[in-house]
Amino acid sequence: MNDNIILLSHDEQQLRLSRVRGLMKQAGLDAVLIADFANLYYLTGRVYAGYAYIGGRDGEQMYFVKRMENLQGDGVVGIRKPEQMAESILIDASAVIGIELDLMNYNMVKRLQGIFPEAQIKDCTSVMRAARAVKTDAELQMLRRSGVLHEDVYRRIPGLYREGMTDIELEIEIERALRLEGNLGQFRISGDTMETYMGSLITGDNADEPSPYDFAMGGAGLNPSLPTGACGELIRPGSAVMVDLCGNFTGYMTDMTRTFSLGSLEKLAMDAHQCSIDIIERLVTLGKPGTPASELYNAAMEMAKERGLHTYFMGHRQHAGFIGHGVGIEINELPVIAPRSRDILQLHNVIALEPKFVIPHVGAVGIESTFVVQDFGLECITNAPTEIISLT
Amino acid sequence: MNDNIILLSHDEQQLRLSRVRGLMKQAGLDAVLIADFANLYYLTGRVYAGYAYIGGRDGEQMYFVKRMENLQGDGVVGIRKPEQMAESILIDASAVIGIELDLMNYNMVKRLQGIFPEAQIKDCTSVMRAARAVKTDAELQMLRRSGVLHEDVYRRIPGLYREGMTDIELEIEIERALRLEGNLGQFRISGDTMETYMGSLITGDNADEPSPYDFAMGGAGLNPSLPTGACGELIRPGSAVMVDLCGNFTGYMTDMTRTFSLGSLEKLAMDAHQCSIDIIERLVTLGKPGTPASELYNAAMEMAKERGLHTYFMGHRQHAGFIGHGVGIEINELPVIAPRSRDILQLHNVIALEPKFVIPHVGAVGIESTFVVQDFGLECITNAPTEIISLT
C-alpha cells in the first residue's frame, strides 16, 4: 500500500480543493472539518480514520490521521484523539467552521465544537455534496471504467440462469460474476435511510412488496432485518426479472438496471418497458446544463400518463417520489430528479435515470442507466442492451 | 410480507421492552425515541423507516412509520414527517427523553428536540446497547442457527480452493457458498468507524497492511476506497489464509475466523496458532457471569507474552487494542474485551473472541469463535475445526 495520504495527482487534488473552497466562500465558511469516509475519499483519494481540515486559502489544508499513523505527506498529522487537532489548527476565535452536521452523530459534533469553543459552527454537508455533484475528468474516467465492467457482466446474465432457479440463486451467480470482474461489492450510501447488500433482483409479486428504504423499487428481502430485494421466490414463466446490482469497480459506482424475462411477458408489461426506454430517449435530449431536474421528472411522468401507465409508474402499491439521482462515490448524490427538486443540471453531473414500472404478478420492468450531463445532452456510460432479454 | 409491525411473539417483545424500561429507569429516562435500524429491529423484529417511542410504563409504546404505511398493529401510527409525532405523544413538559445521540446525525437530533421543546434530551445509546448485550432465548436461537450454517460453509472451504487462486478469488467462492446457504450478506456495524463488504480474507504480507477501520486485522483491500481485507494477492505455498467472513444468516451474526494454509507453515506460525487455540481454551473456563472483560484480555496477553509471541499478537505493524467484542444484530456490541474495558460479563452475553497473530511474510494465524456466556463458562456456537487445515 502507498503510504502517502494523498493518492490523487497534485493537479487533481488542487482542482477538488478549489471547487470546495469556492463553495465554502459562497456558504460563508472560513474552514471545514471533514470526517465522512466518502468525503475524505473525495479529498485525498483514500479512506482513512481521521479528519481533513480545509481552510479558505490555498495551501491551508491538514490531514489528521487516527490510525495508520505511518501515513505521510504534506500537512499530515497523527492524532490519538480529536482534541489534539487544536494544537495544529490556528484560526480566528470568531471563525465560521463547517462540520458535516447532516452526517456526523450529535455527540461527535458536540465534541468537535468543544475544540473550537469560540468558533461559529455551521453545516457543510451541502458544500461537500455540491462539490462532488460535478465530476472532474479523473472522476469521469473512474465512472466510465465502472460502466464498461458493469455492462460486461450484465451481458452475461442470461448465461448464468439455470432452470428452476429462485431470484436469490440467480442474484448470487451475478454477484459472483461482478466480483470476479473486480467489483468491490460495497454499495456506498450517504446517510441512514437505506441499506442493501449488493443491490436488488426482483421478480413477480415481490416487486410489489413495499420497502422501508428510499430505493426506487421494493422487495421483501430474505429477512425482516434487511427488507429489500430478492425474497427466495421461484422465477416463473411469464414473469419479469429486474436486475439492479452494484457497479462499484473503482470506488465510483455506476447504477444500471436491466429487465430479463422467463418466456414472454403480457402486453401491459411489454408496453411499460417500451415506455421506460422511450422516456430515457426523451430525457437524453432534454437533459443539458441548465435544465431543471424537475423538468426531467415531469417529462417522464407525463409520458407515463399519456400511455395510461401512471398507476404502475415508480411502483404500484407504493410509489417512489423520484425517477433519478446523482451517482459517484455514493449512490445518492446530487442532483435529485424529483418533482420538487430545485437542482439544475450542470455540466458533468453524473445521474442515474430509472423510469420503472411495477406490473402486478409480472414484476418490475424498465431500465436504468447512468449518464454524464454534456452540452449536447446526456451521454450514457452503461450501454448494456435495453430490450427485455429472455433468460432461456 | 407480514403487514403487522411487530414480528416478535408477544412474550418476546414484552421481555425486551421490560429490559429496556429497567435500564431507562436506571438512566433516569422517562421515555426513549428510537430511530436506529438495529434498535428498531431489536424492538419489533423488523427494520422500518420511522421511530419507536417507549414510555416508562407498561403499554406506553408507539411505532411511527414513515414508509410502508400499510403496516398494522397496536400503537402503529403513519407519519410523513417526524413533527407529526407530537400529536400522538403526550408527555410532561419537563420529561427526560432519550435519543440515540451517539448514532443519530446532529441535524436530526435538533429536529427531534424541536418537537419536544420543553423536554430534557439525554443520550439513550448506551441504554439500548446494554439491553441488547444480554440476549434472550429467542435471540440465542437465532445466533445458534447462524453458527450452524456458518460452520457448515467453513468446513467446505478446502473444497472451494483451486490451484493458482488469488485471495479475492477464493473469497468470492466462499461468499457464494455462504449466500447459497442463506447468508444475508449484510455485515451490520454500529456507528461509522468501520466498513466492509462481507468480511475479510487475508494471506501473506497483506495481513500486515494496516487498515483505518477498527477491525482486529487489516489488509489493503482491492481499492483505497475500501482499505480492508483481500488485495488480489496470489495464495503462495507456505502462507496462511485467514478467513473471517460474515455469519449473518438470521439478522443475528456469528463471528468466526479459521486459518488455512497452502502446504506447511513455518514453526513460528504454527506455534502462534496453537497459542491462539490455547488462549481460547483458557478463556472458555475463565469467562463466567461476573468476570471483568479486562481479565479475559489480560489473560490472553499474558499467554502471548509467556510464549514470546506478543510482538505478533493482534497485529505486527499495527496492533488492535482488543481481543473480543459482543456480537448479535451488529458486529460491535457490548461487552468489549479490552484492557481498559469496564464491562463485566453477564449471563447470556454473546461474545466473539479473536486472539490472532500476524507473522511477517506468512500471514495471519489464530482462530475466532462466538460464545454464549453461561454459568459454567463460555459455550462455543461456531464449532468448525480449529486446527490449520491445508487447502490442498
Automatic annotation (TrEMBL), chains A, B:
InterPro entries: Creatin/AminoP/Spt16_N, Creatinase/aminopeptidase-like, Creatinase_N, Pept_M24, Peptidase_M24B
Gene3D superfamilies: Creatinase/methionine aminopeptidase superfamily, Creatinase/prolidase N-terminal domain
Pfam family, one: Creatinase_N
Protein name, entry field: Xaa-Pro peptidase family protein
